[in-house]
Structures are given as C-alpha cells and as structure tokens.
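worker-3 :: picked ABC transporter related protein
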Amino acid sequence: MSATASAVSWRALGPHVRPHRRVLAAGALLGLLGSGAALAQPLAAQSVIEALQERESVLTPIVVLSALVVVGALLTGTYLLLLERTAERIVLRARLGLAARMLRLRVPAIDRQSPGDLITRMTSDTTLLRAAASNGVVQLVNGAVGLLGAIVLMAVVDWVLLLVTLGVLGTIAFGVLVLLPRISRATERGQAAVGEIGSVLERSLAAVRTVKASGAEARETAAIEDAARRSYGAGLELARHQAVLGVATGLAIQVSFLAVLGVGGARVADGAMDVAALVAFLLYLFYLAEPVSGLVQAGIELQAGLGALARLDATEELPVEDDVETPADSVLESAIAAGPAPGVPLISFARVAFAYGDERAPVLHDVSFSVPEGGQTALVGPSGAGKTTLFALLQRFYEPTGGAVLLGGRDISTIPRGTLRRSIGSVEQDAPVLAGTLRDNLLYGAPGASGAELAEVVAETRLEELVAQLPEGLDSEIASRGTSLSGGERQRIAIARALLRRPRILLLDEATSQLDARNEMALRDTIARAARRCTVLVIAHRLSTVVAADQIVVLDAGRVRAAGTHAELVEHDALYRELAMTQLLAGPAG
Ligand SMILES: Nc1ncnc2c1ncn2[C@@H]1O[C@H](COP(=O)(O)OP(=O)(O)OP(=O)(O)O)[C@@H](O)[C@H]1O
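worker-3 :: tokens ->
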C-alpha cells in the first residue's frame, strides 16, 4: 500500500517546512551571515599580509579579523540552536498530526494496516523527516548561496583559477545526481523493514501465550531477524552511498587544491598574479569545502527524508472518521433520544447487502428485519452467518454496499458517527478488559458518570460480590487483558461499562464459552435487567438467552432465514431446531 519514493517529489516536504518557513529563513540568514563572516576572513587575512608587506600598522586588519571570527562564531551558534529547535518542532508537528489521525482512521483502513508498522511510522519515520525538513533545507539554501558567493569572490580574485576549480568540482556533481535517488529508495526499504520488525513483534507479543503454546518462538524470532537483516542491508547500502559521496567530495576539493596550486604557482611565476591573490584564492577554496559538502549532505538528508515521507504520506492519505467528535447536533440528538414515531421500529435493516472489500464475496445479502423499541432481540445462526457484521454496520464501522440501516426511521449514514455511537453500548464477545483499575474499566465509556450511577450499574450487573472480594474494591488493579477475572465477570464488567453510557441500544455479543451455574445465572439476570433500561440486541450463543428473547432472527449465510419466538421457530424452522439442539449452550442448569 505504501507509495514508492519515486512518487514523492521534493514538493511533498512543503507541508512540513511551510509552517516553519519564517524561522527557517531567519536560520538561513543567520547561517549566511555566519558564512559571510567566514568568507570575509580571507580578505581580512589578505589585508594583514599586505599590511605586513607594506610595513604598515597591522592593528586595524587584526581587529577586523578577530571581530569577524567572534561574530561568525556567535551567528553560527544561534543558527544551529534555531535549526535544532525547528527540527524538533517539525517532528512534534508530524507526530501530533499522526496521533490525531491514528485512532480516528476508518475501520476498513485499520483492517488493512499492521499496527506495528503504524507505530514505526509515528516513532521512527518522523525522526528522518526531522533532518530533511530542517537541516536539509537550510543546508541546501546556505550551501547554494555559500557556493555562489565563493564563486563570485573567486572570479574577482582570478577567473582562470576559478575555471580550473569548477572543472574539477563539476565531476562530483554527476556522481551526486546518480546516487541521490538510490538513497531515498534504500531509506524507504530500511524503514519498511523496521516497520515489519514492529509488526511481527506486535503480533507475537499480543498473542504470546499462543506463540509459546505452539512452540513458535523460533519462527517468530526468525521473522524478526529476517526483517532486522533487511534493515541492516538497507543501512549498509545507505552507508556505501554516503561513503562514496563523502570521499568523492573530499577528493574533489583536494584535487582542486593541487590543480589550483599548480596552475596558480605557474601564474605567480609568470607574474600573471601575485602571491596575496593566490593565498586568498586558496583560502576561498578551503572555504568552499564547507558549502560543497553541505550541499552533498543536504542532498543525502533530503533524499532520506523523502524515503520516510513516502511512508508518512501514505498514512496521511488513509481515510479518517471525521464525524466522531463533531459538536452535538441538539435537534438530531433530541430526535434520537425521543425515540421513533409510533409504529416506526427503533432499528431496521432494509435490504442490507455488504462485502468486506470490492474483491471479496458479499457476506450479507438482502438482509431485512426490524427491532422494536424495548425488550430483547436475539440473533442466531451458524458461525460466519454475518451476525457480528450486522453489529459493525449498526455502529458504522463499515458502510453497507446496498440497502440501508435505519435508526428510528432515519438512515444512519446521515447520522454523524459520534452521535450514533453515543446512543449505542457495545459488548464484544471477548469482552476486552483494559489494564487499569476496575473503576477505570467501568468508567471507560462514560468518564463523567457519578458515583451513584456507578453504584447502580454495579448492582444491576451483579458485580457487587466481585467488588467486595477484590482487595481494594473498585480501585483494585486488574491484570492486563483481564486474566485474573472469569469469563462471566469480564462479560458483566463489559456490560456495566456499556450501560454506564446510558445507551438507547445495547449490542451484546455473548461469550461462546461455557459458564458455571452462578455466572450463567448472573449473566442472564444482567441481560434481563438491561433489557428494562434499553433495547437489547444480542448475538445469542445460549439457550437461556433465546428463550428469554422477545424476538429471534435466524441468519444463515448472510440471509435472514426466519424470525419469531423460540416456540415458533422450534416448530417451524429446521435450522433453528438444529441450532437449538446442537449449538446453543444449554448452560449448567439447563
Ligand atoms: N474484517 C473482516 N474482513 C474480511 N472478512 C471478514 C471480516 N470480518 C468478518 N469477515 C467474514 O465475514 C463473514 C461473516 O462474519 P461474521 O463475523 O459477521 O459472522 P458471525 O455470524 O458473527 O460468526 P461467529 O458466530 O463465528 O462470530 C465470515 O465469512 C467472515 O470470515
């Protein structure tokens, strides 16, 4: 998915550089003034020599030379400080920009990404941008101006020697132009490999028990090693290019020195120029090494930055949900809160079709059913029938490819995602528990809920006993991933978290695991109580749930097969009968 480096032009740096253009311009100016002070030093040195030759006072030329050295140093120091600060700001801005997008990316876009690779983009690629967008840009400007200035001054001193110098320097320009694009490609390859290290590590740490239980440590390690070697290979290639460029630059300057010494010596001997002019010219040549290597360095940094930018830009282009934090539309929110008009169902799936991507087979076909306000509706069907997908569509994690999902008669695609999701509480099947205290976990979806509301929901979800057992009650730390809790407890915590949001609709994907009698009863009771507060739509895996449901919808291979009560379906639907007998968990008591 990543764009190739060749597709990223120098212009792509614009958005990163533009906000800092004034500071960068000031930095470039300071750098230039510093260079100017350095450039004027040979002239001052020349006047010291001339004063000595003429046996005049050397005080003034020496004072001027010293002032140039001190002012030059101060200017360069300020310039460096300014540049470093800008560099850090560029990284910060890029990271803040990415941070603002990451968790707002649309679910289909996240599905296609590897979390580890996304983390690398945020942490590592941004630092490469740092060098390119600050140092690279300023060095490019200063190097070019320094080079031009030196060339003009050298032309003033002796244009024959200038032609000799330019002839030699011209040869390195060719090498630079050939090597630079390779640097950006090698950087992008290296960063992609670093991203892969992150991906494999994230994948295997997230499922570390499965990795260990499957004896897959060596295979996962090998995958990381492979990516690390590829990153090393790309790093080596970069180092080779940089070494060649560094040596070529140094050689060009040295050869220029020798050529200028030879030709200049001959010209002095011929009387075509004097010694002071030759010394001044050589000092300029000495000075020239800096802008030339600065330009080469700028080229390297900019190209490496462009390689990283290709990866950052690819992330920038991923679509985000831009309507999760939009200010509440009070008319719409109160219309939703008021509930549907009489005779209009709370939720309707109207001929909904859906596929996870253009090239994938549809998983829902022409799904139509309604959920009245209040009570419990259960979805049942074989594994892969599309039950979880219906929940995802209802929360606008994905958009249907055909038909519409309606809330109170209103197409949910017209309701901002934030508003829609505020009216829904969702409990996933694996009921994730986040690291933190029990209180943090319960308040996660409603940080502003009061103590009384919390106590009420804790009682309603029958969590009081758990709270009493824990050493510090609600403030007890829960082990990461909730491993210290039973499946039933995790589900009830997740239900409590969802209920604290005071949702209009509770979506509940029941755990498929067998629960003990107490947990089973507690869960059944919790769902029944929740159904008094809001409309419960449950993906049912338990007989006790379907028996208690007001309506059951049977899904099979992405189609609605039947709907009715447990008694009706047992009588009229063969698949339901079979599911009820074989797949629905009867529970310890049932
Ligand atoms: N993110 C996804 N990308 C691609 N395909 C998916 C994705 N999620 C689910 N599917 C596919 O869509 C189909 C329906 O899946 P879904 O999870 O909705 O079924 P389900 O009825 O909830 O099954 P289960 O009871 O096993 O959870 C399956 O074939 C599944 O492989």
